[in-house]
Specification:
Blueprint: E1 2-7, H1 11-20, E2 26-33, E3 36-42, E4 57-58, H2 62-66, E5 75-79, H3 81-92, E6 101-106, E7 112-113, H4 114-119, H5 121-124, H6 130-138, H7 145-148, E8 160-164, E9 169-174, H8 177-185, E10 191-192, H9 198-213, H10 221-227, H11 236-240, H12 261-270, H13 280-291, H14 300-304, H15 315-325
Parallel strand pairs: 2-5, 4-7, 5-6, 6-8
Antiparallel strand pairs: 1-9, 1-10, 2-3, 8-9
Length: 354
């Protein structure tokens, strides 16, 4: 692949050049704000500041921020692989205009939730390595569960990959023709580079599989009901999910959000009605059906839950099985069709019950 090597300190200048050369009209980048990190939309090069693109914290997904970006002005999005993968799924779901985004994925060593990061911001710093992760874990500060089981941490998604070579250097890798055009526009010298990193990918996958095997499986409807027992139907998981995009959610409509006389009618028909209605399991199973092929296992749902329900035990685990059935990797390519939008006669017969 074609790539250019830069010093870490040169990245700020690179981002400014993207704006100066009108490669993009604005950039979405993470910045430190006190002891937390937030995305900011930058349109003027002189107001760039110092973005912290490798910072190991996960808050609101960048894909959620640009959801609905269908205007003509182009935005450059610099984010973690899971966030870029979600943005690619949103492009295929026609929630983002493909011509209006330039996607930069960055190598990710995992992330902490906002609360843990704020409490240990100085120790965590702006980037992670294995030694720091291990030292923090001994103090009881662990990476998010979704990050521990993630095997897609490398900058291989979107238009440009920002690869950490070492503590001082990065490599900007053109992943698509659009990405190569953008790097050329800022007059970077591109050379053919081997960026496969197969050994590292194998190591990441082995570690993720090991962590995944340690998570207790839910094997019955009764167990699922127990796990969801503390759900208060706040729907935060839906609102924070980057690939949950319905304009009008079923659970905001009368049939999905029964109230008043409708509840009494059902209670009269059944003799007894569990409230609030719909029940927790129905809500989560319906949402799971909606996102199972496009779920990028980012863990935003679990982070958003005020009842601290371990939703990573449900959504990514089920989604992985469904995606295996369809041989589909969400967020891998804009060109790869969504599984449920294609049809082949007699396909998947091995999954049908006799």
């Amino acid at each position: 692949m074609k790539a250019a090597e830069l010093g870490i300190g040169e990245l700020e200048g690179f981002f400014k050049e993207l704006l100066t050369k009108n490669v993009v009209d604005c950039l979405l980048l993470p910045f430190r704000v006190g002891k937390t990190v937030t995305y900011m939309l930058v349109s003027e090069p002189e107001k760039m500041g110092s973005p912290v693109i490798f910072v190991p914290v996960f808050g609101i997904s960048a894909a959620n921020i640009v959801k609905g970006w269908t205007i003509e002005r182009k935005i450059g999005v610099v984010a973690k692989p899971c966030e870029i993968r979600a943005a690619i799924e949103l492009i295929k779901l026609e929630q983002i205009s493909p011509e209006s985004v330039l996607l930069f994925s960055v190598d990710c060593a995992g992330a902490y939730n906002l609360k843990d990061f704020a409490e240990h911001a100085d120790e965590i710093g702006d980037a992670l390595d294995e030694e720091k992760v291990a030292a923090l874990e001994k103090k009881g500060v662990s990476l998010r569960t979704a990050c521990q089981i993630c095997d897609k941490r490398l900058a291989e998604y979107g238009d440009v990959g920002i690869v950490r070579v070492n503590a001082e250097k990065v490599m900007l890798v053109a992943l698509t023709p659009k990405g190569e055009e953008a790097l050329s526009a800022v007059e970077l010298t591109l050379e053919e580079k081997d960026v496969s990193r197969e050994d590292l990918k194998r190591k990441i996958k082995e570690e993720a599989e090991k962590r995944k095997a340690e998570i207790p499986r839910i094997s019955s409807a009764e167990e699922l009901d127990d796990v969801l027992a503390s759900c208060i139907l706040c729907k935060n998981c839906r609102d924070m999910c980057p690939v949950c995009y319905c304009k009008v959610c079923f659970f905001e409509q009368p049939l999905g959000n029964l109230a008043g006389g409708d509840m009494l009618n059902l209670a009269t028909l059944r003799g007894v009605l569990r409230v609030p209605s719909p029940v927790q399991m129905f809500y989560h199973l319906t949402r799971l059906y909606h996102v199972c092929t496009t779920c990028v296992a980012c863990g935003a749902c679990e982070d958003a839950c005020p009842s601290e329900i371990p939703l990573t035990k449900i959504y990514p685990m089920v989604a992985e099985k469904v995606q295996e059935m369809f041989a589909y990797e969400p967020g891998k390519s804009v060109e790869e069709p969504l599984p449920l939008t294609t049809y082949k006669e007699e396909e998947y017969e091995e999954y049908l019950r006799p």
